Inverse folding.
């Protein structure tokens, strides 16, 4: 719940920021000189890029949460079997062992979205955010295709 509140707060702050930047771009364009019009147009591009990124990230998070809810209902969410340090951090060797297990499961059944979801969690635990995101995108894609064929 706290993560969701933080996300929505930051998203609201970003939207306000995009509106402020956009208004500055409009003011620059209204000045009418060649330099301010070009600069104002360039400034207006930034809020559009930011809004696209925010929309894309929100859509990804909603899709991942939908898969998590579905896996939870099936009883298939990965169990936290990781060892932790005294400070609460995940033990690297423990994360690597779980990752190897998840990778083997995914290689055995590469078309199964549930395995990709669990692999994404293992990547995240191993602090490999880029691969975690790609694995989760693969899980979402596989799940969406599965829904279409039903």
């Amino acid at each position: 719940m706290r993560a969701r509140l933080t996300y929505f707060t930051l998203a609201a702050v970003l939207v306000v920021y995009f509106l402020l930047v956009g208004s500055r771009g409009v003011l620059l364009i209204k000045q009418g000189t060649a330099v301010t019009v070009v600069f104002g147009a360039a400034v207006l591009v930034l809020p559009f890029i930011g809004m696209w990124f925010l929309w894309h990230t929100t859509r990804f998070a909603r899709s991942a949460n939908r898969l998590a809810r579905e896996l939870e209902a099936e009883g298939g969410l990965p169990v936290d079997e990781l060892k932790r340090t005294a400070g609460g951090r995940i033990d690297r060797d423990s994360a690597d062992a779980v990752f190897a297990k998840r990778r083997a499961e995914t290689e055995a059944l590469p078309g199964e979205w549930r395995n990709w979801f669990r692999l994404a969690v293992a990547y995240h635990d191993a602090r490999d955010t880029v691969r975690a995101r790609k694995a989760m995108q693969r899980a979402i894609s596989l799940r969406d295709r599965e829904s279409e064929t039903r």
